[in-house]
UniProtKB/TrEMBL annotation:
Protein name, entry field: Resistin
Family: Belongs to the resistin/FIZZ family.
Organism: Pyxicephalus adspersus (African bullfrog)
Pfam families: Resistin (PF06954)
Signal peptide as annotated in the record: 1-19
Highest taxon of the lineage: Eukaryota
Disulfide bond among keywords: yes
Length: 105
């Protein structure tokens, strides 16, 4: 409750309160939007696909595996660590990984 009161007290200082036809709900919505945009910036991802022969593929340094796929209609795979895909079926001809990293810190 204290944080809400602090936000309401800060609204005039942030320049979010105006008397130009914006009711109380609009003011609160603008305040929330402002705080979210300035507190939690939208992440920017850089993703790449990596392929390899066999049952294992590793992401480049600094990337994390976000998804894996396997050849030979194998739907059974797991992540080894955070950046390697391993297909669990026998005689896999290829393995693919989607690897991403956050480019905005």
């Amino acid at each position: 409750m204290k944080i809400y009161m602090a936000i309401l007290l800060l609204l005039p200082l942030l320049g979010l309160v105006n008397g130009h036809g914006c009711d109380e709900a609009c003011t609160v919505e603008n305040a929330i939007k402002y705080l979210v945009e300035h507190t939690y910036p939208v992440p920017e991802l850089d993703c790449t696909t990596v392929n390899a022969r066999g049952a294992d593929v590793s992401c480049p340094t600094g990337y994390l595996a976000t998804g894996c796929s396997c050849g030979m209609a194998c739907g059974s795979w797991n992540l080894v660590g955070k950046s390697q895909c391993h297909c669990q079926c026998a005689n896999i001809d290829w393995t693919s990984a989607v690897c991403c990293r956050n480019v905005r810190s």
